[in-house]
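#struct-pred
JK: can someone run the complex with phenylalanine? inputs below
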Amino acid sequence: MEESVKRLTEETSAKIVACGSVAELNDIRVKVLGKNGELTALLKGMKDLPPEKRPEAGKIVNVARETLENAIATRQSALEKAELEKRLQAEKIDISIDKPVEHIGGLHPLTIMRNRIVEFFSSLGFVVAESPEIETDYYNFEALNIPADHPAREMQDTFFITDSILLRSQTSAGQIRLMEKVKPPIKMISPGRVFRADEADATHSPVFHQVEGLVVDKGITMCDLKGILDLFAQHFFSQDTKTRFRPSYFPFTEPSVEVDASCHHCGGKGCNVCKGTGWIEIMGAGMVNRNVLIGCGIDPDEYTGFAFGGGLDRITNIAYGISNARIPFENDIRFLKQFR
Ligand code: PHE
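RT: done, structure tokens with the ligand placed:
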């Protein structure tokens, strides 16, 4: 009997190691250790032995059972692990696969330019102040020293929503909103959309963009204005761009000027881009009118300031060499693609 147990243990151990699945292993277990299994049969056969040999034989069978049970448990956990690995591998979804992206959008040149202008002025310590596109008559005109009957209103053919609410015709409204809240020193720019009831043509559009600038502090002069605008023009157009001031009139600045930059196309010699003058107008500007400061509760004997309002569309077109002012608004992908 000892021989049979030994042989069965060896054979079964070899099968356990060789088997390839948990199901197969289970069959082996049932066949050997189960109720009608081979080892169980040997145990039952003990009753044929003489009584004095039975304890010894029982021990041998039990040791064999324990050996085989351990072998089965070890093999089972190895098989389970392997089967899990196999399933994980087979059911894996590769989410990293590369799908070619065909149409990636980009920023509109005007947005790129606005961001660059914000960056430029931020580097000089200016803050950005947003103000509403739907504005009141008070902020767009009254507080800017343009009362109801003022002829300067004529220059800005305005979209009125009611008698006192309108689409802002200039970003200058933002000057007032800021000066009411913040006291000097003030250094701000305010880029945004403005609206005027103009027919769309090569140089006009009912919606266009401005960037307003305002500096108020003790001792601010027109030299500061000129210095900042020179830096601006050199930064965005070219190193040798010059600026010039021409006398002008705005009710909210005194004195007022139109600011020209030397023509980027001909360098100031005169060409068809600058209509032979060598200069291109880029903005209106001036020293903040005393009445405006007083209206905002700022003492004009203590503080002075300058303001400018630039045509963002014009500045963008000059900086990028866009010759037709309508193209940026036609949504032509061939044009827009060039700015990615
Ligand atoms: N708001 C003026 C315009 O739209 C421009 C301007 C701004 C002039 C600030 C002077 C100072 O024409």
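RT: quick notes.
The pocket of phenylalanine is lined by residues 170, 172, 250, 253, 284-286, 307-309 (CB under 6 Å).
The radius of gyration is 44 Å.
JK: thanks, will look after standup
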